[in-house]
Design a protein that fits this description.
The chain has helices at residues 5-21, 26-37, 41-66, 71-94, 99-136, 138-144, 153-170, 177-185, 191-216, 221-241, 247-265, 270-294. It has 314 residues and is mostly helical. The protein starts with a helix and ends in a 20-residue tail after the last helix.
Length: 314
């Protein structure tokens, strides 16, 4: 097995960001492989998913021991996600092995990254709303008498099915898109249970997608080894730094990077990408200031430290 040490170093840096933010690694790893190392999209997705299948169980088992997992939710999410994750890979197989399938994977990846960037913004907004409720005391009353989570089976299966298909096609979604849907479906679910549930359901989801890519994708053992050797120590280091790093700033920068990567994967020209990014830099902060003021916060946040739980997945 040949190890690419330059790639390993890049994966170490990505691992640090994953540990800092709790963001799944697939949203960063796969576009880096495609855009900076010239790896074909299908090969990048296949190898990244197999690496994620090895990494995912570490964080999820910690949450299992702490009791911060809703096993009923995990069950119904997996009912939807496991078959569709495998089916997503089979769908790619039917598209062929040439330029057409590589182009399809790249387009799907670009769309998934746009959704992941939007997901980061939505998460930030929902957290702002939660802080606003804390300020007026409504959240504290809810925590004292928090209702039981009533599982909405149909919607939960649908979320799992859509998330599984996206992960099978792109390797993105298990740590970014599904958690947003869970926040919307189950607003009373505690934050720790939200993260723990998302991490545990992603283990069989990613395993199913990885198995499909081993059989039908373009899995490369040497590439996967490089990913694991770099990313695992990076995630551990990022986790140690997470209590001291400005997590909000890191997540905003991450959303910006995901947006830029998505535009390039979707074939937007360099000049067009520059215009979009400039617009995001100028308009985004102004909109966020308005949102903060509307919820009773000062225009600019004072220094806050992130204690985001670690996610070691796609």
């Amino acid at each position: 097995m040949s190890i690419d040490w330059f790639l390993t170093a890049a994966c170490f840096g990505i691992g640090i960001v994953v540990g800092l933010t709790g963001m799944g690694g697939g949203a960063l790893m796969t576009p880096v492989l495609v855009l900076f190392f010239g790896i074909p999209p299908l090969t990048a997705v296949s190898s990244d998913l197999v690496a994620a299948a090895v990494m995912k169980p570490f964080g999820s088992f910690v949450h299992l021991r702490r009791g911060t997992v809703n096993l009923e939710l995990v069950k119904w999410l997996c009912v939807g996600s496991i078959p569709t994750a495998f089916a997503g890979v089979v769908l790619l197989k039917f598209l062929g092995n040439g330029k057409q399938v590589q182009s399809t994977v790249q387009t799907a990846l670009g769309i998934a990254l746009l959704l992941a960037a939007a997901g980061l913004i939505i998460r930030a907004y929902l957290r702002l709303l939660e802080r606003a409720r804390n300020a007026d005391g409504s959240a504290s009353r809810l925590s004292q008498d928090r209702p039981e989570v009533v599982v909405r089976k149909g919607w939960t299966i649908l979320v799992g099915a859509v998330g599984g298909l996206v992960v099978g096609l792109t390797s993105v979604g298990s740590g970014s898109l599904i958690i947003i849907a869970l926040m919307a479906l189950y607003p009373t679910l505690k934050a720790s249970s939200l993260v723990g549930t998302d991490l545990l359901q992603a283990v069989p989801l990613v395993a199913s997608a990885a198995l499909g890519h081993i059989f039908f994708g373009d899995f490369k053992l040497g590439l996967t080894g490089s990913l694991l050797i770099g990313s695992i120590p990076g995630v551990l280091l990022g986790a140690q730094l997470s209590s001291r790093a400005p997590g909000g700033l890191v997540r905003r920068a991450l959303a910006f990077v995901l947006f830029a990567s998505a535009l390039k994967l979707l074939g937007v020209s360099t000049v067009g990408t520059g215009y979009f990014l400039l617009a995001a830099l100028l308009v985004g902060p102004l909109v966020w200031v308005v949102v903060r003021r509307a919820n009773g916060f000062p225009a600019f946040a004072k220094g806050r430290r992130s204690r985001t739980p670690v996610s070691t997945g796609a």
